[in-house]
Design a protein that fits this description.
- The protein folds into two domains: 50 residues, no CATH class; 238 residues, Orthogonal Bundle (MetI-like fold).
- It is built from 15 helices and two strands.
- Strands 1-2 form a two-stranded antiparallel ribbon.
- A hairpin with a 7-residue loop joins β1 and β2.
- α12 runs antiparallel to α15.
- The two termini are 48 Å apart.
Length: 315
């Protein structure tokens, strides 16, 4: 076949452009349901909340533009600092514990052989429990008088604390109950563990490395990208904790509990927006939370450059 016939069989440049244009249109049509939903239910509410944060808006009357008054008022509101502190403490306690427990259970599942599928399902099922039910479960299990946790501690002669009424134990109790939904992290870590080359462990055993050394020198570095992903996701969840704490300490209207110790940032945001109808102030709070999460995420990404290993990374 001559060069002339080969070039004639190839599509011309205008023909290639039309083909690419058709492919682009087809791709946009396929993603249009998601794109429309994103613009209407995500992008527009975010933009509009930015406008509302500059107004005095009670949902009933029209917004009244007040500039940065809502943002300056937050610096004078003591409950902003209280709720942010409570949220930060919960996040600092819950994220490392969540990852450590999930990794420990994933390592056990890795050794379960044929029973891995069964136990993986068992660990994941609690994830399907509604968050409201988890909040009620917290009050039942962590009841200071006859809760399951204190009964178990009493069996060993240990006097359990009053988890739901002692301010010092409210957040640790919520951190422990958050482990109820650890199943998704276990499944993700188990998948990452199965991708670690077995040759590395064989070489380590030949060199006399024990299980702890293999875990810290091989397992954790090789799945560090997955651990980093879980750290990001759980940090965002920690700053947005709402349902479990609200159900346990605010939803019932019972004021005998230590509500200040469980006043997390999103709960206070919800109170301002939907109980007191300070929607402009609540919108400003939402933007502050966005900035805080963004800062923590940027810091985590900066740290990950030195601590996270990616397959194929030549640095």
């Amino acid at each position: 076949m001559s060069a002339t016939s080969i070039s004639a069989s190839r599509p011309t440049r205008p023909g290639r452009l039309r083909a690419r244009r058709r492919e682009t249109v087809a791709a946009l049509l396929f993603i249009s349901p998601w794109l429309v939903g994103f613009l209407i239910f995500t992008a527009w509410p975010v933009i509009y909340s930015g406008y509302l944060s500059l107004t005095d808006y009670d949902v009933i009357n029209n917004p009244n533009f007040v500039g940065l008054d809502n943002y300056t008022a937050m610096f004078e509101d003591p409950k902003i600092a209280l709720s942010l502190t409570n949220t930060l403490i919960f996040t600092i306690l819950s994220v490392p514990l969540h990852i450590i427990v999930a990794l420990a259970l994933a390592l056990l599942l890795l050794r379960a052989a044929r029973a891995t599928g069964f136990f993986r399902t068992v660990f994941f099922l609690p994830k399907m429990t509604p968050a409201v039910a988890v909040g009620v479960l917290f009050l039942l299990i962590f009841n200071g008088q006859d809760g399951l946790i204190n009964r178990v501690l009493g069996f060993f002669g240990i006097q359990g604390p009053y988890w739901t009424t002692d301010p010092a134990w409210v957040k640790p109790g919520l951190v422990l109950i958050s482990l109820w939904t650890i199943g998704s992290s276990i499944v993700i870590l188990l998948a990452a563990l199965k991708n670690v080359p077995t040759e590395l462990y064989e070489s380590a055993r030949i060199d006399g490395a024990n299980f702890w050394q293999q875990t810290t020198r091989i397992t954790v570095p090789m799945i560090s990208s997955t651990i980093f992903f879980l750290a990001i996701i759980n940090t965002i969840y920690g700053f947005q904790i709402f349902t479990e704490a609200y159900t346990a300490f605010f939803g019932s209207g019972n004021t005998t509990y230590s509500n200040d110790a469980a006043l997390f940032y999103v709960i206070y945001l919800f109170q301002q927006g939907f109980q007191y109808l300070h929607m402009g102030y609540a919108s400003a709070m939402a933007w502050l939370l966005f900035v805080v999460i963004l800062i923590f995420t940027v810091v985590q990404f900066a740290i990950s450059r030195r601590t996270v290993y990616y397959e194929g990374d030549t640095r």
